[in-house]
Write a structure and sequence with these properties.
The complex is a heterotetramer, with two copies of chain A and two copies of chain B. Chain A is about 40% helix and about 15% strand. Chain A is of the alpha/beta class. Chain A has a seven-stranded mixed beta sheet with strand order 2-8-7-6-5-3-4, with helices on both faces. In chain A, strands 11-12-15-14 form a four-stranded antiparallel beta sheet, covered by helices on one side. In chain A, strands 1-13 form a two-stranded parallel ribbon. Chain A starts with 12 loop residues before the first helix and ends with a helix. The chains are: A alpha/beta, B alpha+beta. Chains in contact: A-B, A-C, A-D, B-C, C-D. The structure holds pyridoxal-5'-phosphate (2 copies).
Chain lengths: ~425, ~160, ~425, ~160
């Protein structure tokens, strides 16, 4: 892995919290934030990097000769370099800034897809994908007449590799999540990628939940494209990333058209700019890229190995605590081994609807998400309309798990009879 | 922060625990409509049987959802049975008005354009309450307005009913 | 006009500057920022609104039951309401948040265009468009076999209406700028829109330079779609807006696919969410929308009539000053009447290349842009490879113009012989 | 901030005022290549005539641009005339190396991956200077590195030459 392994092997959460202004508030009850899988909070370093940029040297990038614009461009491109290094990319030409992971995946579908796929061509997805990795392909399938195939999910919430070879037969592209935002499952991306490559397919990895939580190396994963999003990894909203192999990106037609992505425009045509700018039409999310660069800096400071170790420990504690206190009344979906999953716990509790659970927990300051988590096909597969979901990040600790467990009692009181 | 007691009134929990008019009707003669909340996956199925006299002869409810969507559906089923289609529509408007957040002073400049946010979040309909319509038990749901996310739960049954009409 | 007319009829620039942290810096030489047409600076109110959001109540929107997520959603949607009101939109359903004006225009081209246009169909543009309003149509023309026609630009830099009727014959769509980012020209959008509507064409207005500087009312303009961008109107980077008439937006297929924009997703298809969310795939630029809402608040506080009056006065002063000091050695492109143009002065000076002008001016702290300003076809029409461009906003005053004029002397010293 | 005197050395201004080798050559036998800077619109046209002995027999330059792109082209034309194609390539590499910003300590962690930013902004090529190549007058352009935006101006002629070779 190309990640910088930290000297610490776990996190001092009390110290970490001091980095996050949201914990400076005096809330009563205190904040128990367990919804980082939806969006994480932002450390001061990220907010400061953006504020400092705006307060000292904001200007549009890439087109200004004056020093302030040059400085803006330098900070923007330095952020790209940091992101590239963070995921083990060998060149900044391979790192495209988008507005979120969703746009990154749409870019691949529309640009690579339209250039390379036609009627009857097979695209392989999985049943545990987020809508962001389903709808772009469903739309493309309708536009081009593609055939979509889905890898199944086992009853334990693992990716079912049984049907892999059959699914890959004739496949042109495989797109799968590196970590389920519902189950926490970490599918064997590398194994699927190797099989996909052997079958001649290109591999897209939705790493929206992976990059924030595990050290990432695009080569080790076997990815051809990797999509992720800033706001789940301590960065701001409004920015995502698409990494892609240079040969592939190079051969692809542009996605959106406008300033920045062109080399020349005439009244009857245009030519494209070099990578990565070819895929960055219009004024980019400049401050957001700088904020994401700072977020990467913070994650490197914590050390991704420590982040992962911390989350495994916390997940383990949560699984134990909930089992001890509620036994079979509480069903956690997904893998039971904390080392085989991320810190995302989707659960059902005593038949109480997740909306009601979340509402009652909120009264105790405990923030969990309730709903389909943008994974309706997976909900159908699990046979539930919705789940409640608690998810962990660097600022969570055992006390958050205890608060969750305590608050669940209040749900029982209100709804169980 | 509004308290849970504003949301989970006893009568609401009662309808949730003991939902009225659950079941199905044969279609035809009944009409069937399905509604769901795109944000949470709650689903409601309504079977509506309107007699030749233009009155709701029977109405059954299927589907699943949270306490608010289920109890709202249950209360609605009681409220509309036996009413004329016209009366049901009036009731529907009155309920929607109850569920609407008026934010006309959003930033205090008195300009009303776009200042009202529709109760179902669509930002387009701005129903006006009719003081002559009595909502009965349904008024127990007015605490929902303090929890904007749940408004869609409360209105789901009504929106589905509109489709069936 | 639906704009709130201010009680002030002009601006107190010294006070305005106090709102902008960038002017708090001790720069030597002091900052003379004349590049707001590329991107404006941000007032404290905008930075504070975003910081406060992140520090107190950030969470992903539209999907959370807990109070913090509800508050995030409320702030995000309140920003939409403010933006809607600012441009005279009747419904928030018509206001789509995008990542920039470029994406807004691509959205119209790809979604409306693909659904409504076919081989041989005519799209009318103008020679003075920004690449953002050219490349999406050039790409679409290539994809669908459209015919593109261009309204000409006169030698004075005005839109030539001579050929309008001929161009509109059989046209399906007209897309034009409401203010040129190079010439400052304010084309008669309403007249063109009326003629276009009479010919049965839909009207797209690129208002990226208009909304920041003139009170905007979508109905008065006669627009069917209106695109603009946050960072040029005191707002943050990473956010743009597409306003569209509800019937049109309603009938259009989605643009990007993912979370947020769907009602239901199955393994074999999906259905779309209501407007405006149908066009907002993935986690939206939440903090950026909130920042844009705050920017609108500041512009309303200044009063758009005052903003416009201030810029007309400053443009007038600049045209006079430059003419007095440099006579025919300095050529300003575009209309000579300050009331018929925006505060954007593109100029040539004594044959010195714009890059060199900008470089030398920078040494005096004067920031102007040099280049083709993403309008290469217009550069060709003007017969220049590039121009230097000074542009004004609320924080500029006569002293900035004087500094520009003084610094031009240094250019002569270095390059004229 | 770097001073203007770093950028606008006297020799650069001289080449800008009195550009060498401007003009055209008949094609064929000469080869023609066009280059332009997408960010500012500068254009360079190079006419290159390589003799049977593999040496640059003649080279002419057209197009327009700023002082840096024009003087760089002018100096280049002098530097490559009479050289072998191989020598021209070596010179090109040496010049690119001169124009490269080394930021290996970007954030001080010693990890070199992606830490060098290519001089022409492409982020991919990281040429290494060859101490045996003498750049002569061309070294006057090294002040350009302090003004990263202008690097593309300085390298435009060379990139266009590479196409023509
Ligand atoms: C007239 C005009 N249209 C469109 C744009 C594109 O805006 P953005 O780059 O924010 O998408 C700009 C500014 O760059 C502009 O001046
Ligand atoms: C697995 C996964 N993929 C994609 C996304 C989409 O990210 P965004 O909404 O930032 O585009 C998310 C989060 O919402 C996710 O959890």
């Amino acid at each position: 892995m190309a990640t910088l392994t930290s000297v610490h092997d776990t996190l001092d959460v009390a110290r970490v919290r001091r980095d996050f202004p949201v914990y400076d508030q005096h809330r009563d009850p205190p904040l128990v934030f367990l919804d980082s899988a939806a969006s994480s909070h932002k450390p001061r370093a990220v907010l400061d990097a953006m504020a400092d940029y705006y307060e000292t040297t904001h200007a549009n990038v890439h087109r200004g000769v004056y020093a302030m614009a040059e400085e803006a461009t330098a900070r923007f491109e330095a952020a790209r370099t940091r992101v590239a290094r963070f995921i083990g990319a060998t060149s900044t030409a391979e790192v495209v800034f988008s507005k979120n992971a969703t746009e990154s995946l749409n870019l691949v579908a529309q640009s690579w897809g339209r250039a390379n796929l036609g009627p009857g061509d097979v695209v392989v997805l999985t049943e545990m994908e987020h809508h962001a990795n389903l709808v772009p392909w469903l739309a493309l399938a309708e536009q081009l007449g593609l055939q979509l195939r889905y890898l199944r999910v086992t009853d334990e919430g693992l990716l079912d590799l049984e049907g892999l070879d059959a699914a890959l037969d004739g496949a042109r592209l495989v797109s799968l999540t590196a970590m389920s935002n519902v189950l926490g499952t970490l599918p064997p991306v590398r194994a699927v990628a190797d099989a996909a490559h052997a079958a001649g397919a290109v591999v897209v990895v939705d790493a929206s939940q992976y990059v924030p939580h595990l050290g990432t190396d695009v080569d080790a994963l076997g990815a051809d494209f990797l999509a992720f999003t800033g706001h789940k990894m301590l960065g701001p909203t409004g920015i995502g990333v698409l990494w892609g192999r240079e040969e592939l990106l190079d051969a692809m037609p542009p996605f959106l058209g406008g300033g920045e992505m062109i080399r020349d425009v005439r009244l009857d045509g245009f030519t494209c700019n070099d990578l990565p700018w070819k895929f960055e039409a219009g004024t980019p999310p400049i401050a957001e890229a700088i904020g994401l660069g700072a977020a990467v800096g913070e994650l490197e400071r914590y050390g991704m190995a420590a982040v992962r170790a911390h989350e495994v420990a916390l997940t383990s504690y949560a699984l134990d605590t909930l089992r001890r206190r509620y036994g079979d009344d509480l069903v956690v979906h997904g893998p039971t081994d904390p080392c085989a999953r991320g810190g995302v716990l989707s659960f059902g509790f005593r038949g109480i609807h997740p909306h009601d659970i979340s509402q009652v927990l909120d009264q105790a300051g405990v923030c969990v998400r309730a709903g389909h988590h943008c994974a309706k096909p997976l909900m159908r597969r699990l046979g539930v309309p919705a789940t409640a979901r608690a998810s962990f990040y660097v600022y969570n600790d055992e006390s958050d798990v205890d608060a969750l467990a305590d608050a669940l009692d209040a749900c029982s009181d209100l709804f169980c009879f | 922060m509004a308290g849970l007691e504003d949301l989970y009134r006893e009568i609401i929990l009662d309808h949730y625990r003991n939902p009225r008019n659950r079941g199905e009707l044969e279609c035809p003669p009944a009409r069937r409509a399905e509604g769901f909340n795109p944000l949470c996956g709650d689903e409601i199925v309504i079977y509506l049987d309107v007699g030749d006299d233009g009155r709701v002869r029977d109405l059954k409810i299927g589907g699943q959802g949270c306490s608010i969507s289920q109890s709202s559906a249950s209360m609605m089923s009681q409220a509309v049975k036996g009413r004329t289609v016209e009366e049901v529509r009036t009731l529907n408007s009155a309920f929607k008005a109850l569920m609407t957040i008026h934010e006309s002073c959003l930033d205090g400049d008195g300009n009303e354009v776009g200042a009202e946010v529709g109760g179902d979040g669509s930002g387009t309909d701005t129903p006006v309450p009719d003081p002559n319509v009595s909502l009965g038990d349904l008024t127990a749901l007015q605490g929902v307005v303090k929890f904007p996310v749940r408004i869609k739960c409360a209105t789901l049954a009504w929106n589905t009913l509109t489709q069936a009409l």
